[in-house]
Specification:
- The structure holds two protein chains of two kinds.
- In chain A, 0% of the residues lie in helices and 52% in strands.
- In chain A, strands 2, 4, 5, 6, 9, 10 and 11 form a seven-stranded mixed β-sheet that branches. A four-stranded antiparallel β-sheet of chain A has the order 1-3-8-7, with no helix packed on it.
- In chain A, a hairpin with a 2-residue loop joins strand 5 and strand 6.
- Chain A starts with a strand and ends with a strand.
- Chain A contains no helices and eleven strands.
- By secondary structure, chain B is an all-beta fold.
- Chain B has strands spanning 9-13, 18-23, 32-38, 45-50, 53-56, 61-64, 70-75, 84-91, 109-114.
- In chain B, the strands form two sheets. Chain B has a five-stranded mixed β-sheet with strand order 1-9-8-3-4, with no helix packed on it. Chain B has a four-stranded antiparallel β-sheet with strand order 2-7-6-5, with no helix packed on it.
- Classes of the chains: A mainly beta, B mainly beta.
């Protein structure tokens, strides 16, 4: 039981490049979400999903796309990376009446 | 959506009790209060959750007054290893369909424990 697994751990992109941050959970949780964390800003919700085929926007969705084709996976796509997207990204999952389980994050730098 | 407000930082010494308060004035009837701890380079991890009055587990206590507009995380006899950022999260954890899935964190409280 690995919990929430995020890959890669580190990534450097150039402005305009695209990439996908991967998130997988093996707990059969229906709910999954993505947060970004910047110094002094806490955790800000990007997108979330309450089940396969269902996604919704959080606080800061612009510049990011998500899809949820399976219960296990919730990838986050940056179509055209910008320096403002330099951040640490955390994926989380939960089941009804349970707390959020977080991955260990992906540190992204956009130059 | 219940927004939360916490102190940005707190200092303490080893062995002291630390109380961190979170304000959530527009908490909804179905909302629970959950606290998380985050160490550098790690994801947040669950500490404690409550709905009203007092909850205690092996690491912390959570005090919630009758009006539920605030909550206090109490860490007894802190050690250096309790140095971390603590987040309060308010949301409907029994359901997460629709807007209940919009789980918004505050900016957290950075606790520094000194020897």
């Amino acid at each position: 039981n690995a919990g929430v697994t995020q890959t890669p751990k580190f990534q450097v992109l150039k402005t305009g490049q695209s990439m996908t941050l991967q998130c997988a959970q093996d707990m059969n949780h229906e709910y999954m979400s993505w947060y970004r964390q910047d110094p002094g800003m806490g955790l800000r919700l990007i997108h979330y999903s309450v089940g396969a085929g269902i996604t919704d926007q959080g606080e800061v969705p612009n510049g990011y796309n998500v899809s949820r084709s399976t219960t296990e996976d919730f990838p986050l796509r940056l179509l055209s990376a910008a320096p403002s997207q330099t951040s640490v990204y955390f994926c989380a999952s939960k089941e009804t009446n349970s707390p959020l389980h977080f991955g260990n994050g992906t540190r992204l730098t956009v130059t | 959506l219940a927004k939360t407000t916490q102190p940005i930082s707190m200092d303490s010494y080893e062995g002291q009790e630390v109380n961190i308060t979170c304000s959530h004035n527009n908490i909804a009837t179905n909302d629970y209060i959950t606290w998380y701890q985050q160490f550098p380079s790690q994801g947040p991890r669950f500490i404690i959750q409550g709905y009203k009055t007092k909850v205690t587990n092996e690491v912390a206590s959570l005090f919630i007054p009758a009006d539920r507009k605030s909550s206090t995380l109490s860490l007894p006899r802190v050690s250096l290893s309790d140095t971390a950022v603590y987040y309060c999260l308010v949301g409907d954890f029994l359901n997460y369909g629709g807007s209940q899935g919009n789980l918004i964190f505050g900016k957290g409280t950075k606790l520094s424990v000194k020897p």
